[in-house]
Design goal:
- The structure is a single chain.
- Helix content is 42%, strand content 13%.
- The chain has 245 residues and is an alpha+beta fold.
- Among the domains are: 18-69, Double Stranded RNA Binding Domain, CATH 3.30.160; 187-237, Double Stranded RNA Binding Domain (2-Layer Sandwich).
- Mean pLDDT is 78; it is low at 1-8.
- Residues 18-45, 46-73, 74-101, 102-129, 130-157, 159-186, 187-214, 215-242 form the C2H2-type domain.
- It comes from Araneus ventricosus (Orbweaver spider).
């Protein structure tokens, strides 16, 4: 390897000759260095004439213009749906491929994108970070809070329970609520036949079966999902045993 008088490789010096004087990061060309310097100065020279929003790079500035024009030039070659950026198109492709790369490490449920996974985690933690500043009611997702605000503003016709007069912003929420009065539990566990009024409660209950340690019969070595099933099975052996003389 060739070296100069300082003992360093001249080719490496050539590749990194543009150095940021603030953080000492090196760049191959001066244009990239100039763009990098804007991070330190916080300068945003590209200003939108419509909304006055500022941008650090020309690329982000040009992409922002699509917000005002409603233009979506990047098309999906499967369904022709348009997108502003290539990254959004790549996320959309997962709808067609059926791929769900983001998996919950608690219940193993999979999701198309990370934001949906993060929202799902709130089911396990019980956290409801979106709080109404009028009545302090909390919600798991932002759009549920927005719908709730309509109760206070009166912008939307309410769905009212005829039994207790409780109001709901969505018809689906009213239908779920009515199950409290009727006592109906239409969601049935396939393992133990326990019934639930909500599908979400059934899903949560199903995890108890998945997390059970398999129980084996000491007589015939047959395995069962839980102790209840094993006890029921043991009765079959008692019935088969001949009476003692």
């Amino acid at each position: 390897m060739r070296t100069d008088e300082t003992g360093s490789d001249p080719s490496l010096q050539e590749k990194s000759k543009y150095i940021c004087e603030v953080c000492k990061k090196t760049f191959k060309c001066v244009s990239v260095l100039r763009r990098h310097r804007l991070i330190h100065t916080e300068e945003k020279p590209f200003v939108c004439e419509v909304c006055s929003r500022c941008f650090r790079t020309l690329f982000n500035f040009n992409r922002h213009h699509y917000v005002h024009t409603a233009e979506k030039p990047i098309k999906c070659d499967v369904c022709e749906k348009g997108f502003v950026s290539k990254s959004n198109l790549n996320k959309h492709y997962l709808v067609h491929t059926g791929e769900k790369p983001y998996k919950c490490d608690i219940c193993q449920k999979s999701f198309v994108n990370k934001s949906n996974l993060n929202n799902h985690y709130l089911i396990h933690t019980g956290e409801k970070p979106f709080i109404c500043d009028i009545c302090s009611r909390s919600f798991r997702q932002a759009f549920h809070l927005k719908e709730h605000y309509q109760i206070h503003t009166g912008k939307k016709c309410h769905h009212v329970c005829e039994i207790c007069n409780k109001m709901f912003s969505r018809s689906s929420a009213l239908q779920r609520h009515l199950l409290i009065h009727t006592g109906e539990k239409p969601h049935v566990c396939e393992v133990c036949n326990k019934t639930f009024s909500r599908a979400s409660c059934l899903k949560q209950h199903s995890l108890t079966h998945k997390l059970r340690v398999p129980q084996a019969c000491k007589v015939c070595k047959k395995a069962f999902k839980g102790m209840t099933e094993l006890k029921q099975h043991l009765l079959t052996h008692l019935e088969m045993d001949p009476p003692k003389s």
